[in-house]
Design a protein that fits this description.
heterodimer; A: 290 residues; alpha/beta; 4-stranded antiparallel β-sheet; 12 helices; 10 strands; B: 266 residues; mainly alpha; 3 domains; two-stranded antiparallel sheet; 11 helices
Chain lengths: 290, 266
């Protein structure tokens, strides 16, 4: 078990009239190498939850264990926990402050005391891991890049700590479809190649369908559903109650089911849906197109 | 998401007779009470003022303990004033130890000044606790607008104040967000000497400034696209208008202050 939450509760501004209970009694276990999506309405506690994974927030009650280490312990090695569980915030390009992309990506490993050849290797590796060319981009100012490049540099600036888990809050928000595609593909590849634990918060079910295997649905500070992504998407009615709309593919499959076709409602990609329709609806009734 | 949770100017949104008063009336009242409290020298007047403040606090539905909290930031100053007056006022000594001595005059003068300061703080606290920042700047703009004739930028000043107040919570929220993001990247604020510590702040300050400039640009464009051209010919959604309670309150406060002053000058 890599990350484990036991009955975690958290309240903002605790003890004041403005107190907001953001997490209520969360139990969660995350294995190494998993790829997890977290969804829920705005304000349901997703961002609060992920900040518990790397000890930026300490639970009010209950405990969080990262590889067996309790984050609320007084002498917990917070920096080590934050290295192992890299957290990429929403709009991470807002944190840029260095004059070059190289320096920006080198910030985190430098804070870990890494210098010289290893530092350069890590920066190079991280930039390439997000699909950027090290030689052409390293000396440019991070502020003059395109939106998609900025986002990738920001992700690289966390990857350079060589985290074992990567947690991303809305990594594709505000990007064009091409930028989205690149980032999602790179993340998926990293998860497979490096056995990286990937945790993705997103409002886009299409994005999650491309990357996640397991889905956690939150509502009002609680985990309402936690299951295989296909099984969750096939419960269309239930998840709509929670303010979640399954990807178009799953919705089409569901509409076909209502019309009496035995289509698997857990389809994730357009290709899978096409296969299902071909097999179960058309049954070889081919028409000549064009 | 939690940006609105920072208490700014400690305004407490309630619906009390005091909250409903015209902000101009409250500002004028605060102004004359400050002047009055500086003129007054005797305990009876302060007692009467204390009674008025109690009455206002009661009418404003703000709990007295919450009102007293506004004294806390100035507690050190109050104690310092008290101690200085106790020990350094010449007169009839009632306690001596070496070069330290406390005089009877010192005690009465010190207490008087501290009570005056407390009353001043409480009067202004009632103003800021019952008046939203927007109302406050609106009121200031109205009160300053006669000066426009001599080229005084009353509207621009009020707009600047409104914008500044509006963005304090946003900036705090942003600072917290960036602090967290850089902490996740292993930022270290603690270690090193003074110079190093100042350098440690760079990852926090640079993004904060960059984002503030970006936001200022966006705000300017948003204002211009809604045809903002300064105060000239601008009408208001909420026109401030004095109503009966405002007049009663004004009459009451002026007569109260006059009465006290008459006593003082006689």
């Amino acid at each position: 078990m890599f990350i484990k939450l036991e009955q975690v509760s958290f309240t903002y501004l605790s003890g004041t009239p403005l107190a907001v209970k953001a997490l209520k009694d969360i139990n969660l276990e995350i294995e190494r190498g998993e790829s997890i999506g977290i969804v829920g309405r705005t304000g349901c506690g997703k961002s609060t939850l992920i900040q518990h994974f790397n000890a930026l927030l300490i639970p009010e009650s209950g405990r969080v264990l990262v590889d067996g280490v309790d984050t609320s312990e007084k002498k917990a090695p917070l920096r080590e926990i934050r290295r192992r569980v890299g957290l990429v915030f929403q709009y991470p390009e807002d944190q840029f402050f260095e004059e070059s992309v190289f320096q920006e990506v080198a910030f985190a490993p430098r804070n870990l005391g890494i210098e010289g050849k290893e530092l350069e290797d890590r920066v190079k590796w991280s930039l390439e891991a997000v699909g950027l060319d090290f030689a052409t981009i390293k000396d440019r100012s991070p502020f003059e890049l395109s939106g998609g490049q900025m986002r990738r540099v920001a992700i690289a600036s966390i990857l350079s700590m060589e985290p074992e888990a990567l947690v991303l809050d809305e990594p594709t928000a505000g990007l064009d479809p091409e930028g989205k595609g690149i980032i999602l593909n790179q993340l998926k590849e990293l998860q497979k190649e490096k056995n990286l634990t990937l945790i993705l918060v997103s409002h886009s079910m299409e994005d999650l369908a491309r990357v996640a295997q397991r889905l956690i649905v939150m509502d009002e500070g609680r985990i309402e559903l936690d299951d295989d992504i296909r099984r969750i998407f096939s419960q269309v009615e239930r998840i709509k109650e929670l303010g979640i709309f399954p990807p178009v593919t799953a919705q089409v499959a569901w509409l076909l089911r209502e019309r009496g076709f035995d289509v698997d409602p857990g389809v994730l990609t357009p290709r899978e849906l096409a296969e299902e329709i071909h097999l179960k609806v058309l049954e070889g009734k081919k028409v000549n197109v064009g | 998401m939690w940006g609105n949770s920072f208490a700014i100017g400690q305004y407490v949104p309630l619906n009390s007779p005091i909250h409903r008063l015209d902000p101009r009336v409250k500002i004028v009242f605060a102004g004359i009470s400050i002047i009055d409290l500086f003129i007054l020298q005797d305990w009876l007047s302060f007692l009467l003022w204390g009674g008025v403040i109690l009455l206002l606090a009661f009418l404003s539905h703000i709990s007295f303990s919450y009102l007293l909290k506004s004294l806390r930031p100035l507690l050190f100053l109050l104690i310092l004033t008290l101690v200085l007056h106790f020990f350094f006022t010449p007169g009839e000594y009632i306690w001596e130890y070496g070069f330290l001595h406390i005089s009877r005059e010192g005690i009465s003068k010190g207490l008087l000044i501290v009570v005056r300061l407390c009353l001043l703080i409480l009067v202004t606290a009632i103003l800021t606790l019952t008046t939203s920042p927007v109302e406050l700047t609106d009121g200031i703009e109205y009160l300053l607008s006669p000066l426009k004739r001599w080229g005084f930028p009353a509207h621009e000043l009020a707009m600047m104040m409104t914008i500044a107040l509006r963005f304090i919570p946003t900036l705090l929220e942003e600072a917290e967000r960036i602090l967290k993001a850089q902490t996740a990247r292993g930022m270290d604020l603690e270690s090193g000497g003074l110079v190093q510590k100042a350098k440690n702040m760079i990852p926090l300050l640079v993004p904060l400034f960059v984002n503030s400039f970006k936001r200022a640009d966006e705000l300017a464009i948003a204002m211009e696209s809604r045809c903002y051209r300064g105060g000239q010919g601008r009408t208001r959604l909420r026109v401030l208008q004095l109503r009966a309670p405002d007049y009663y309150f004004l009459i009451f406060s002026f007569s109260f202050v006059t009465l006290l002053s008459v006593r003082f000058f006689l």
